[in-house]
Each structure stands twice: as C-alpha cells, then as structure tokens.
Amino acid sequence: MIQDSMIREILARPQDIAWLPWAVQYFFFIGLACGAVLFAGGQRLLSRRGARSVQQSQLEFTALMLVVTAVVVAPLALNADLHQPARVWHFYAHFTPWSWMSWGSLFLPLFSMLVMGYFLALIYSRLKAKPLPRLLAGLAFLCALSAISILLYTGREVSILRAQPLWFSLWLPLFIFLTACQAIPALLAGWLWRDPQYQRPLAKWQLITLVALAGVTLLWASGDNPSAQALRHWAAQSPFTAAMPVALWSLLFGLSLFNRKKTFSTSLVAVQVLIALVLCWSVRWLLLMQTQTLPKYNVLANPYSLPLGSEGLLAIVGTFGLWVTAIIAIRESVSWIEQKYAGSNRVEGEMHHG
C-alpha cells in the first residue's frame, strides 16, 4: 500500500510597516525638547548658591526657546502618526494603565504646559528684572521630572516589544536620549552664532554627551542578550548602513575637540549643527523604520520604500519646515517684545526725569 504524502505549504506575506515617518519626526523633536529643557534646568539648578552668571542665564533662555519650538512640532507629528484625531480621544476615554502610550497621553500635555509656564515665567523675570529664584527653580525641577517621564514612556513603548529583538533592551531609551542630547550644544551654538564666546563651553558639553553615547552603545552591543545579538547581526548584515552613525559621531567628536581650542566661523558652526541633527535623526530612522523591515515571525523581510506624499517625504519636509517657521517666530517675537518693553521703559524714564 502506497501511502500518499501531503506537502503543506504555509504562505506568508510581507507585513505592512506599522510606524510611519511621522513617528520618526515625533521621536526626533520630543528628544530635542527633553534634552534642551534638561540643559536649561541644569543651568539654573546647578548654579552655585543661586549666583548665576550671564552665560548661564543666556544659555538657559536660549535652550528654553529651543524647547518651545520643538514642543510645538512634536505633538502634531504624533497626532499625524495616529492617522486620525479620534484616536487621541480614545486614550482618555479608554485609559489603560498597563499601556505606556496611555500614560504618554497624560505626560505629553503636562510636559507642554510646564515648558510654556517655565518659558513665560522666565520672560517675565527678564523683562521686569526680577530674579524669581524660587518660582523658576521650582518650574525647572518640575520640567526636569516631566522630561524624564517623557523619555521613559517614549523609550519603553519601543523597548518592551519582544517581537523586535533589537528594540527589546533597557539600553534603548538611554541611547535614544543621548543621541538627542548630543545635538543640543550644537543647536545652541548655532542659535547664538553672534556670540562666539559660548562655543567653547558648549563644545565641552557636546564632548561629554558624545562620550556617554559611545559608552552606552558599546555596553549595549557587547551584551549577551537577544537585543545585543540582533544589533551585532544587523551591523554585520548592513555594514555600510551601520557605519554611517559611527562616521557622523567621529566627525562631531573631532569638531568638538577642535572647537574647545579655537572659535568656529558661522559656516563651520552651521556644518556642526547639520551633522549633529543628521546623527540624531538618522539613528531614529534606522531604529524605528529600518528595524521594521526585519523579519519578526517568519523569515521574510518587510520591504519599505519612502512614498512622496503625506505619509513619507512630505511629512518629513513639512515637519522640518514647521520647525524652522517656529524658530523664526519665537526669535522674532521675543526680540520684538524685549525691544518694545525696553522702549516703553525708556520713554517712561524720560517723562519722569522731565
């Protein structure tokens, strides 16, 4: 008797990408916001016995202006990534305590309100020439705690996913945070391009963040867990792609060392800013988008090509355009307010003198 054999074939199809470029933009801008507000708060909280230098005051204010621009763009990118506004309401109507995204729906608005309160209080303090040390120190501390909650939720909503071994690591949130932190000193140097005396202290901070980033990366990659193994396997399979962040890091490290000894021209500062932003953004793209193309439950890769519309290139260009617009608006608005207030004080002084 001949026994018939049956060959059963399980067909698998590539899976669609769940997170779109909007998610990369959100992680990029919220990382900049958290890194900048921690830097601003550090300038205030770490000053010796409340004796703050002009340099610390200016760096705090500039960092806060940078925070406000990023806080404007980040929630919009997140809302677009959710595909429809109704999903935002669902986080509040159906709160789930075990979901990091549900907690994020509380953390993000609180962070935005605290940042705006800190910024407005600091503007009032500068215009009225009132130090307000307790109020501003309290707001700086609350903003720092809120930033940590944002970093925790954004990092953990990715690193808890076992289906992607590369993401499943406690090193990932810290890695994402440090890639944003290294861009803050360069951005501040670019913002203060007319004041080159800030370049050297900012270069020191950038060196510190770059060294910390390298240390965390080495500790992550040298581990003996599935995430470290997946990271090493990905680097071996895509050596040129993996080498790009390393090359950007090396360029920034060399520029920061050189900047500690010599003041850069405006064009060189612009190059440094561009490299720092590209490193911050490209790491997020590789982690969030490129990783989604790797096989999860089968051996099939999930190919992805960047579309040109609102779910691809247009989203990236649009959010960066909105950020540039926000930067111009904040800079010009603050300058106009300070000039108008200074002019009104001068007129009042002349009237009283007469």
From TrEMBL:
<dbReference type="InterPro" id="IPR005614">
    <property type="entry name" value="NrfD-like"/>
</dbReference>
<dbReference type="GO" id="GO:0005886">
    <property type="term" value="C:plasma membrane"/>
</dbReference>
<dbReference type="Pfam" id="PF03916">
    <property type="entry name" value="NrfD"/>
</dbReference>
<keyword id="KW-0472">Membrane</keyword>
<feature type="transmembrane region" description="Helical">
    <location>
        <begin position="100"/>
        <end position="123"/>
    </location>
</feature>
<protein>
    <submittedName>
        <fullName>Tetrathionate reductase subunit TtrC</fullName>
    </submittedName>
</protein>
<feature type="transmembrane region" description="Helical">
    <location>
        <begin position="20"/>
        <end position="40"/>
    </location>
</feature>
<feature type="transmembrane region" description="Helical">
    <location>
        <begin position="61"/>
        <end position="80"/>
    </location>
</feature>
<dbReference type="InterPro" id="IPR052049">
    <property type="entry name" value="Electron_transfer_protein"/>
</dbReference>
<keyword id="KW-1133">Transmembrane helix</keyword>
<feature type="transmembrane region" description="Helical">
    <location>
        <begin position="234"/>
        <end position="255"/>
    </location>
</feature>
<comment type="similarity">
    <text>Belongs to the NrfD family.</text>
</comment>
<feature type="transmembrane region" description="Helical">
    <location>
        <begin position="166"/>
        <end position="193"/>
    </location>
</feature>
<feature type="transmembrane region" description="Helical">
    <location>
        <begin position="135"/>
        <end position="154"/>
    </location>
</feature>
<feature type="transmembrane region" description="Helical">
    <location>
        <begin position="267"/>
        <end position="288"/>
    </location>
</feature>
<keyword id="KW-1003">Cell membrane</keyword>
<feature type="transmembrane region" description="Helical">
    <location>
        <begin position="308"/>
        <end position="330"/>
    </location>
</feature>
<feature type="transmembrane region" description="Helical">
    <location>
        <begin position="205"/>
        <end position="222"/>
    </location>
</feature>
<keyword id="KW-0812">Transmembrane</keyword>
